[in-house]
Design goal:
The structure is a single chain. The chain is α/β, with parallel strands linked by helices and 491 residues long. It has 16 helices and 9 strands. The strands form 2 sheets. A 6-stranded mixed sheet has the order 1-6-5-2-3-4. The longest helix is centred in the middle third of the chain and has 41 residues. The two termini are 46 Å apart.
Length: 491
């Protein structure tokens, strides 16, 4: 008798993609250690020449030792040098060996991050492996399809359950509507008999045989329709399945869902980080703009404030709808908001914008008539050169903040691929250029902007270009030096 349990068709490619994306992959199974090590070799979990299994010995002085699968290598336990052991060999530990290692927590914590295969382990030991790795500071993702995986799935940072007996791929939808509209093929009818009567036994047999063929064809069509309906039914989650404990459940038995979870997670994390950066920079720019206008006794008009708010809301909406890329990248995103890169890039970008705003504010103030000593802060809105300059600058800087701090590749679609955001920034830039140039007096009047002197228009344009380039240079340099996430490696 030959028993075969082949690997899923896409398992090898998925494991390779996860490993290439800077993630450690470990197998935790209840199977025999030889079977587990063979599968690990096939899937490239283990890539070194020898895989050592922790086994018992008959020697009372050294009850445990590391033995290779082919028996050619044998090392004592504990080893003389742990770094030398983990650098030369892949390690496999059985449930019995894990129980013995648990007696020495220091030795267990030193070996655990380097073990590639856990075999013949109980459900409670699977949970122990996950909780121990979490205790060492690792972020864990557990994937399982059985009731014995429930504890590990529940305690992992991310638990993904696979439905048992589910297909590897979603079945293609059949076009039943089109097929139902097509007329059924005409069945050949027996030739009419003379006189309309069945005059012989042979003729009657032919008619009966023809009817039996029709019934058989109808039964075949009905069975085919029932089979299609059964294939299209949604997989039912049964009590006791791993999906009860896992926050994520895949409808398929393929582990491709792991890559989807990582892609979506990275895209969501990067989107959240860049939105916090943009919010912080826009808040700082608006705070300074409003304070300058308040001291001058002027403010934004209702139309100015409304349009500015609509443009910001549209850009934030389009950023949040960014889609992840189809492939995982080797680069990892930063794990949290409060990091050196985010703090420095926000402060230094605002410093660039602050210098530009102060310079242009001084220029607009010098070209304006002197203000009274006591400013009426509650008077009605009146257009002025200071208001027009500060409004155009704040609008331009806010749009530049979106363009500079949008992350894009390698985690989600780039700015050129995110068409709605790209077009909103382009249209906003054209509107700002039109307001600055004064090409449409009616348009400027609608925004309550005054006519800016020609030489000052040139100064504003140059400052805007320099401001954008300087902020972009600051962000890219900091991203190159501090903006890359690092993989936590076993010590």
């Amino acid at each position: 008798m030959v028993v075969s349990c082949p690997l899923k068709s896409d398992s090898k490619s998925v494991i390779r993609e996860i490993q290439t994306a800077s993630h450690h992959v470990v197998m935790i199974t209840g199977d025999n250690p030889l079977t587990a090590c063979h599968v690990a070799r096939e899937l490239h979990f283990t890539q070194r020449e020898h895989t050592l299994v922790l086994q018992t010995t008959h020697c009372p002085d050294a009850p445990w030792q590391w033995v290779s699968i082919d028996g050619s290598v044998s090392l004592p336990m504990p080893p003389p040098s742990l770094p030398s052991l983990v650098s030369q060999y892949d390690l496999c530990v059985t449930g019995e060996g894990l129980t013995w290692l648990s007696l020495d927590p220091q030795l267990l914590n030193g070996l655990l991050p380097h073990i590639r295969v856990f075999a013949r382990v109980s459900p409670k030991q699977k949970e122990l492996v996950v909780t121990s790795l979490k205790g060492l500071g690792f972020v864990t993702l557990m994937c399982g399809d059985g009731t014995n995986d429930v504890g590990a799935l529940k305690h992992a940072h991310i638990g993904v359950a696979l439905l048992a007996n589910a297909p590897e791929r979603m079945p293609e939808r059949r076009r039943r509507v089109r097929e139902s509209r097509e007329p059924p093929p005409s069945e050949p009818r027996p030739p009419p008999l003379p006189g309309g009567k069945l005059s012989s036994r042979g003729a009657r047999n032919r008619v009966l045989a023809h009817r039996e063929e029709q019934l058989a064809a109808q039964k075949e069509r009905i069975s085919q329709v029932l089979k299609e309906l059964e294939e299209d039914q949604v997989q039912v989650v049964k009590l006791g399945d791993a999906s009860i404990a896992a926050p994520f459940t895949s409808k398929l038995s393929s582990i491709q869902c792991i890559c989807h979870v990582i892609k979506q997670g990275r895209c969501t994390l990067v989107t959240t980080l860049q939105m916090f950066k943009i919010l912080a920079l826009n808040a700082l720019v608006l705070a300074y703009s409003q304070s300058v206008l308040y001291l001058e006794g002027v403010k934004f008009s209702d139309f100015q404030a409304t349009l500015q708010g609509l443009l910001l809301a549209g850009c934030f909406l389009f950023i949040s709808r960014s889609k992840p890329l189809k492939t995982l990248s080797q680069e990892r995103p930063l794990p949290n908001i409060f990091n050196l890169y985010t703090v420095l890039t926000v402060l230094l970008q605002f410093l660039v914008h602050f210098c530009s705003l102060v310079y242009l504010y001084k220029g607009a103030q010098s070209r304006s008539p002197p203000r009274p000593e006591f400013v009426d802060l509650y008077k009605e809105f009146e257009p002025s050169l200071v208001n027009s300059t500060v409004y155009i600058m704040s609008m331009a800087m806010q749009m530049a903040t979106f363009a500079i701090n949008y992350k894009g590749h390698p985690f989600m679609e780039s700015l050129w691929e995110n068409r709605p955001l790209l077009w909103s920034l382009v249209l906003s830039g054209l509107a700002i250029a039109g307001l600055l140039s004064g090409s449409s007096p009616d348009f400027n009047q609608q925004f309550a902007l005054v006519d800016i002197p020609s030489e000052f228009k040139l100064v504003i344009g140059q400052v805007l270009v320099l401001d954008f380039c300087a902020a972009l240079l600051v962000d890219r340099l900091l991203q190159l030096l501090l903006g890359r996430g690092s993989l936590k490696l076993p010590c």
